[in-house]
Amino acid sequence: MDRNANKIVLVTQKSRMQELMHKYNTKAQAQFHMEHMGADFSDYVVEDENYQKSLAIVKQIADKYAKVTVVDREFVPNMLFGKDDVVIAVGRDGLVCNTMKYLNGQKLIGVNPDPARWDGVLLPFEAGDMENTIPKTIMGDCDVKNVTMAKAVTNDGQEMLAVNDFFIGPKSHTSARYDLTTGPVFGRVITESQSSSGIIVSTGIGQTGWYKSVMAQAKAACGLFGYDVSGDYEKIG
């Protein structure tokens, strides 16, 4: 395996600690503000340490097999990916979704830097797994799951892709009135008036995140009024 013939793009994201440091300039100032708000600052420290440790392990392993480019998530939209690049996202599930939007057939590996903290539905690997995963991915000796994204098209022809879900509604998230029309169902077109802050349209991946949370809340609310929606929820979710 020729190391110089391969390229790995390592996509990172700031930990909560790094975001606080960016906002308050120093660790001491960040600690003062968080503890003043009643937050446990030590949790921020542990999270950052776990993330930096996992990231270092992934970088060390990746460097054995390819040239490595490290890019923060905020710069991914401007990144030019080669068609044979292997992309590794080290972070939370959202990082995988956000990165995926800018890829065109490149293999993407999701690494969970802190399994005890995050479930990581889209993060099947841990840092140490890269010792076997990276060379297999480069050689094409790996299982690949293709993902279907949703596409929204506006009346003026603009298009937008989503890996997990779309939110359709006012930017302010204030309540709006609108009509929903479905059908024909059994020969009938059904129109219903609605009032809400918007509509969520989810993909298969999205059903593990925001959609699942909304449906769980709806199920709980229905339960308060004595409605049994367990069957419908399982069928829809």
Strand order of the largest sheet: 2-1-3-4
Oligomer: single chain
Helix content: 25-40%
Sheet of most strands:
4 strands, parallel
Low-confidence stretches: 232-237
SSE run? EHHHEEHEHEEEEEEHH
Q: Compute the number of helices.
A: 7
User: Terminal Cα separation, in Å?
Assistant: 44 Å
Give the helix/strand class: alpha/beta
Query: How many strands in all?
Result: 10
Report the radius of gyration as a whole number of Å: 22 Å
* Gross geometry: globular
Q: Which range does the strand content fall in?
A: 15-25%
Instruction: Quote the average pLDDT.
Output: 86
Give your account of this protein's structure.
The protein is an alpha/beta fold and 237 residues long. It contains seven helices and ten strands. The strands form four sheets. It has a four-stranded parallel β-sheet, with helices on both faces. A two-stranded antiparallel sheet has the order 5-6. A hairpin with a 2-residue loop joins strand 8 (176-185) and strand 9. Helix 3 (41-65) packs across helix 5 (130-139). It is globular.
Per-chain topology:
Elements: E1 7-12, H1 16-24, H2 27-36, H3 41-65, E2 67-72, E3 86-90, H4 93-100, E4 107-111, H5 130-139, E5 150-153, E6 159-162, E7 165-168, E8 176-185, E9 188-196, E10 199-202, H6 210-224, H7 230-236
Parallel strand pairs: 1-2, 1-3, 3-4
Antiparallel strand pairs: 5-6, 7-10, 8-9
Helix pairs in contact: 3-5
